[in-house]
Amino acid sequence: MWRIESARVIAALARMVNDIGLAEELAQDALVAALEEWPRKGVPDNPGAWLTLTAKHRAIDQFRRRDTYQRKLQEIGLDQELRQESAEAELDDALDDHIGDDLLRLIFTACHPALPVEGRLALTLRLLGNLTTAEIARAFLVPEPTVGQRISRAKRTLADKKIPIELPPPAELPARLASLLEVIYLIFNEGYAATAGDDWIRPSLCQEAMRLGRVLAGLMPEEPEVHGLLALMEIQSSRLPARTAPDGRPILLLDQDRSRWDRLLIRRGLAALRRAEELGTLGPYGLQAAIAACHARALTPEATDWERMAALYRLLAHLTPSPIVELNRAVAVGMAYGPARGLEIADSLRDERALQGYAQLPAVRGDLLARLGRAEEASAEFRRAAELTRNARERDLFLERAAAGSVTPGRP
């Protein structure tokens, strides 16, 4: 319940107390109270409202004990003679968040230009995605202490500069959009392929990212990349029902039962992709959506247009150069033109610092080597991938492939 509700609770509190760090502390206090009370009294009908109301009452108690109580009451919009019922009424209004206003306010604040890009991403993933510092470090391919420092500095900067928890004026929205889209995408990606833990996927994160994407598409309907990201998330999410076996075991893309793909999400995603194309030239997210559409439009693995996919990856690499994009291009090229050509690209990435601890590099090389009949080398690569991953399901998959020497294409 905490994982489901925490982002909304923190967002509502942050707007009220205008301090993200304090909002997170108050939410944690409310969680402790829930752990004490719910086992005895039962889970309330509206857990999010209970957590937020409890946290708000604790905030009021704290402010009363401080010399700054009157000033704090003014900051959170309460009358000097606060009544319990008026506080609860304000909370009811704040929790009536059917279009995610509080969450968007929090995301835009966390993406404020006063923060460095790395700090914006780390803070928003921590607050909105409820990811651990270790999971964020994995998403950024940087050491865990670095992420912890980024989050602490970001909170301190927002507090010191007294940056309000609010949506930016319309004129400032485009400048803040790129960072916000990246944050939503990283939240989605963590749900689509969990970096750590026992679960291969975390659908709740995918759903939250898609919800935020849909809200943002309503807020900025003329921005092609908003629709491009939404298309990418919906097309990718369509595969979630087929990505795991009943026991939670991962099922790779070309082994999936495509009849289990969610056709409604595919239709929605393709419609969003068309909208992005109508609005202008596709950006990075639109191009990734076009790549995902190559899979979505193919009723069988054999019908996949791998040549088009390889060409799209080349465009994406030109637009946003990245070793991870190149690694994905290696998979597509290997399927379109043979594993030897894909291996050439993958081998060229072996010295990339950003990929030194990235499990997918040896996994892709292992697949390409296996398809070339170099089974012993392939097994060594899969064992290396198993050592690098922090996801238990993924580790089991790599070890199985190392033992079996199977030839199953990776996940582009």
TrEMBL record:
Presence of the UniProt keyword Ribonucleoprotein in the record: no
Keyword Lipid biosynthesis in annotation: no
Gene Ontology biological-process entries: DNA-templated transcription initiation
Name of protein: RNA polymerase sigma factor, sigma-70 family
Occurrences of domain DUF6596 (ranges): 176-276
Family note: Belongs to the sigma-70 factor family. ECF subfamily.
NCBIfam families assigned to the protein according to its UniProt record, in alphabetical order: sigma70-ECF
Keywords: Sigma factor, Transcription, Transcription regulation
Entry's Gene Ontology molecular function annotations: DNA binding; sigma factor activity
Pfam families from the UniProt entry: DUF6596, Sigma70_r2, Sigma70_r4_2
Domain RNA polymerase sigma-70 region: 7-67
SUPFAM superfamilies: Sigma2 domain of RNA polymerase sigma factors (SSF88946), Sigma3 and sigma4 domains of RNA polymerase sigma factors (SSF88659)
Domain RNA polymerase sigma factor 70 region 4 type stretches: 107-158
Species whose genome carries this gene: Nonomuraea wenchangensis
